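Let's sit down with a protein and look at its sequence and fold side by side. Go ahead whenever you are ready, and we will take it from there.
>
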Amino acid sequence: MNQTFPKKEHLKRKKLIDLLFKQGQKVSAYPLLLFYTQAPLFEEDVVIQAGFSVAKRNHKLAVTRNRLKRLMREVYRKNKLSFQTNELTFAFMFIYTGREEVSYIELEKAMLKIISKFNSKVSAGPEDI
């Protein structure tokens, strides 16, 4: 039961991020939005690389943006083993779309909804990915 989020699982490659937004799919559960795409990852033993974003337009203070990203990373770290990838590798980008700050509990509820939606899309077949 590995609930860590090491550096090699962080989404950092610009080409991969561009590919994600160009041909990726999305799943949402307010206040989170998940962009995902099936893509080859360059790290060994990594199934998912994830990135997190909070819009400056909605949250002016860097302190607020950083806190929300920290909360999103923590919620992802605790629940990442629930994602069913079917032996495929994915790139994820979680975007916080809300205009107000929410608690850890509300973020976790949104994350669990996103996980169930993602799992149902992936289990439906590769044509939906």
In short: The two ends are 27 Å apart (CA to CA). Residues 47 and 89 are 5 Å apart (CA to CA). DSSP finds three helices and four strands in the chain.
